[in-house]
Recover the amino acids of this structure.
């Protein structure tokens, strides 16, 4: 019928944790495959192997991206586990709080400026598109894109101001990531188990 896949986080790759992961996989396959009335199905789950022995990925996302990128090597053949640093447990230092607050402020500015730049907020009822020269009633423009040619109808200065705030958000995110990296060695290691099981 189909393949069902997903991910589970476990504390380690001890026999107990792997048994728990297999039970969770079995439960999810039965649930998602609508096979609850056949509880004896899927007693045989693909084995879970350590896909990158000795490697600890810097975050859940890094581990997930690695497994997705290498899915052709394990998908539909076996289930896999990789170690990652649990960045969710990174302590919020004073510096990190300050960075997150700055980032939130920048995001608010991006959202407010984007909404304020919607064509419906313009005074003129008819708006001209600089790209295709169409004249359009502003009521037919839900945001800031020309409905004819999809060009951005905002002024260059508005676009530059919004982009500047977006770049600030990205720059601050890099600083937050650097703060988390400082704590990396102290962060606990968890394992991401990814699975793909056949339901048919």
């Amino acid at each position: 019928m189909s393949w069902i896949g997903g991910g589970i986080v476990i504390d380690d790759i001890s026999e107990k944790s792997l048994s728990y992961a297999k039970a969770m996989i079995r439960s999810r396959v039965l649930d998602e495959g609508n096979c609850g009335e056949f509880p004896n199905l899927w007693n045989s789950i693909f084995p879970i192997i350590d896909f990158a022995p000795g490697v600890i990925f810097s975050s859940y996302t890094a581990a997930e991206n690695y497994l997705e990128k290498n899915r052709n090597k394990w998908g539909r053949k076996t289930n896999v586990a990789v170690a990652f640093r649990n960045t969710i447990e990174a302590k919020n230092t004073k510096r990190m709080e300050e960075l997150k607050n700055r980032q939130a402020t920048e995001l608010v500015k991006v959202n407010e400026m984007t909404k304020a730049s919607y064509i419906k907020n313009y005074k003129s009822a008819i708006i001209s598109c600089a790209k295709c020269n169409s004249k359009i009633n502003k009521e037919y423009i839900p945001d800031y894109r020309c409905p004819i040619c999809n060009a951005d109808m905002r002024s260059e200065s508005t676009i530059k101001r919004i982009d500047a705030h977006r770049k600030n958000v990205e720059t601050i995110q890099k600083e937050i990531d650097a703060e988390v990296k400082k704590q990396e060695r102290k962060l606990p290691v968890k394992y991401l188990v990814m699975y793909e099981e056949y339901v048919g």
In short: The longest strand covers residues 189-199. The beta strands are 2-10, 48-50, 56-57, 79-85, 126-128, 135-137, 189-199.
